[in-house]
Structure formats: structure tokens, C-alpha cells
Design brief:
8 helices, single chain, alpha+beta, 4-stranded antiparallel β-sheet, extended
Length: about 425
Amino acid sequence: YMRTDSTNIASIALDEAIELIARKYGPELVTEAPRVYKTRSRLAQEAHEAIRPTSVFREPQALKPYLTSEQFRLYDLIWKRFVASQMASAVYDVTTVDVDAARAGGARYLFRASGSRIKFAGFITVYREGQDDGAVDEEGKEPLPPVEAGELLDLLRLLPEQHFTQPPPRYTEATLVKALEEKGIGRPSTYAPTLSTIQERGYVEKLERRFRPTELGMLVNDLLVSHFAEIVDADFTALMEEKLDEIARGERAWVPVLEEFYTPFEQEVERANETIPKVKVPAELTDELCEKCGRNMAIKLGRFGRFLACTGFPECRNAKPLMTRIGVRCPRCGAELVERRSRKGRSFYGCSAYPACDWVAWNRPVPEPCPRCGGLQVQAARDRLRCLTCDAPPAEPAERPPAVARRPRAAAPASAPKRPPATRRSRKAG
């Protein structure tokens, strides 16, 4: 795979982009000179060009028949961002209206409304993060109607609203990587392992594509902050990585750097081993009953993740894997299908009667039967449904279910799911 932080673009690619913009979108969208961008980080590795199409004339729709859905979406994103990066800026008309209202008793009130309207679309013609509807301003509100200074307005209704300060949104994979870049923590080669490690160890869980800390994650964080406050500080991590970069460039000797760090760190580890108490994550009680003794089962955390265990331990040592039921019957034996996790942490779906029934699938099965043959359907690309029996063309679901792992190569795996092919990670186009 190729790894690059660079925003550099070859001159031949810039010439192609300008030619395509003038021919396809109009000469008014061509900038006076090619746009040149600077990398945000001084530690960026710029041995390569930015991620871009090999030729901008290879438009996404022309290549769509030869690409999978994921390949097409990735190429479409890269192509649009690259073309938009060389187009003229968008221009907005921003309108602010002050309404001077007076009551009969003499009290006066000032009301203010703001809105914006696209005057010149510019690069938004090709690509825009978020909403692409030209009738909505950047904040998602309808633009203000035309008004004139001194115009009398009729009060139709007054809507009092109270707004509270909202907490910052939870991190997604993209926003977490962006925050690491801004703080100078990590490098492009460490971002992917960081994201996978915090999930595999159960420190966070992903809900609606956002990371949410688990109880274990908050417990580990509190212990580290209490006993290793300097080590887990973001500034310390960034400074240490800067020193390591200086060592790699031959600007600093490595022995003094390690001595400066390790001597106090060794003392802190010894002190923490003596003072940190053993803490257990409290078990989560469930309504499921133990089939051996009739007591309630509880969700506990073990070496390989969460599992169900009898609350009667140690008298009853019954334990079993924690399975998430999805409300769909197995097409082979009729038992309920459950969500499982592979050893690498990837979700798949199998029969709850395993090992008696070894039916599995990578894609999430849905309750709606196939309208053609009545067979089991699973979620395919772009939240469409695909039948595993007749392999009917994907159809739109009645309700959009949550996104799941991508489709395996086999249409309907009969035993254990095969390992999927490795994917490539790509940074944003420059």
C-alpha cells in the first residue's frame, strides 16, 4: 500500500484537472493559477504525491462497471476531492436582519435573524462535505426571504426556544485521527493500530459509527491518570515523538533520551505496583436464567472479552459466550441467529445451535424474506438487500438497517466464514 501525508500534485495532473474543469464545468470555475496546499504538520512525510486519480479523465461513472461498490465509492471520493481542490472558491451572500419591535407600553425589543445564500457555487458544484442541497445554507437553515431596510413586518408567530450548551460530539474514526494529528500524537503508520487496539481490548465500543467508552475503558483511564498523569498527557506523548524523530535524523543521542525517560518511569511503575488496588469490573445482571441452577446470568469481562456466567459461582460454574440475538431464524435448522465476533474482532452472524448447526454469514441477515423466492436476505452494499437463495439483484430495504461488515466473496457460506481480502487504507485527496 502507499502511505503519504503530502499535498503535492504533479504538474501534469494539475494541467489535466484544469482542462477537465474548463471543459466539463465551465471556464468560470477555473482558478487563475493552480492551487497549492501546504501540509498541516511539519512532520509530514512527503516522499510521494498526494492521493489522486492516475488520470482525472478517468471519471468515476466510466469505471463503475469494473469496480466493486466499495472501490467505486472510494474512487468517487478521491476523484471529487481532487477536482474540487482545483476549482474556484464558493461565494455566499450573507444576510443579517435586525427587527426593531416596540410594545404599546413603550418597551422595545430587537430581534436578529441571519442566513446565507449561495451566490456562486464554485467547488461545491463537484464536492461538498455534509449537505449538498443548494437551497439550504451552511447551518442547515432555510435562507432568509428578500427584505428591504425600513420594511414593516407582520408578526405571524413568536417561537421562544431555550438552548443549552451541548457537549462535543463523540469521536468517529476520522475525527479521532484528526485530533491525533492536531496534537502531534502518532504517525500515519500508527493510526490504524491505535483504532483497532482500543476496540479489541474493549476500551471503547462503536455505536452509530462513533466511539463510546466502555466501563472498562473509563476504569483503565482513571487508573492511568491517577498514577501516570505525566505519561498519559498528550503534550508528553507529542514531545517524546518529536525527540524520537530527532534521534532518527541524527540530531540527538538516544541514550540520554531513554535515561531521562526510563529512570523516573521505572520508579513510578514500582510505586504503582504497590499502591494500585486490584479492581474488578462489576458484572452486569441479565434476565437470562442459568439452565443448570436457575439463577440469573451476568455479563462478565474475561481475557477474551465479555461472556455470560452464572451468578451462583463458585457453586455453579456455568458460563457461555455472550451472543447478541438479531431476531432472525436460521435458514438451515430454524434456530435463532446471533451476532458473533471472530478472533480478529470482526462481526459475523451464525446459528445459536452451533456446533450442531454451523451456518454463518458475514452480512447481517434481515427478517424480511425475499419477495421472489421467500429465502433469507442479508444487507448488501449501500444498505440494499440481497437474497442468499436465488441471488436476486439487490433491492432497497423497507427500513434502512444499521450498516454492517462488507459482503464476503461467497454468496452463502456453508461453514466458517473465510478470511476476507485485505483492504487498503487511503488518506484524503490533497
